[in-house]
Amino acid sequence: MSTIPEHVARLTALMSTFDAPWALCGGWAVDAWLEHQTRDHEDIDIIVFQEDQRVLFDHLAGWTMIAHGPHVAGDTDERWDGRRLELPAHIHIPAKFAFDRGRVFSEDGFTLEAILNERSGGDWVLSREVMISRPLNRCVRQSAWGLPTVVPEVALFFKAQDLRRRDRADFLALLPRLTGEQRDWLRDAISRAGHPWLAQLAT
Predict the structure, then answer these.
(1) Domain spanning 6-193: which CATH class is it, in words?
(2) 141-176 per-position pLDDT tens digit
(3) Domain map of the chain by residue range?
(4) Which residues contact 124 (CB under 8 A, 6 or more apart)?
């Protein structure tokens, strides 16, 4: 097993007793599959399913959690009280406010973002705008860092939606690692809306 970065190790410890599915996602997931940190990250992202949001709220009791969703102002700093959140939604746990069992994580960079997702039975609903779903057990696997991690093609599917500079960098870093099957799935998923990455996936 490769050396696990400090923030990822802390996340693993924090979520080790979380009693619901979850997975590392975003840029750290890309790094997990590459088995080394490739760039700086503003925060550490995980996915949790909408139906398990209360489990997350209870699990992180004692942390400051700020919820963002369709019925919440984008610049809110009001603490989440556990009320049900409708999608799309995410829960922001800023470093300067977070603490666990009396230990304060102040200004140490451990900012956690929990992104709520939809599940239907055993499938992860990746998109409803263009209906795309996939069995959850094909979307998440244990990475070399030893924690549940969104598989490369699904991580890149989400990154394809924003086309930020860092998303393209993650795509180019991870592209050579994709198997033919992974490329085919990603090509099919993003081709439904048209996408500039398609030409590179075809080669």
Answers:
(1) alpha beta
(2) 999 999 999 999 999 999 988 778 999 999 999 999
(3) 6-193
(4) 117, 118, 133, 134, 135, 136, 139, 154
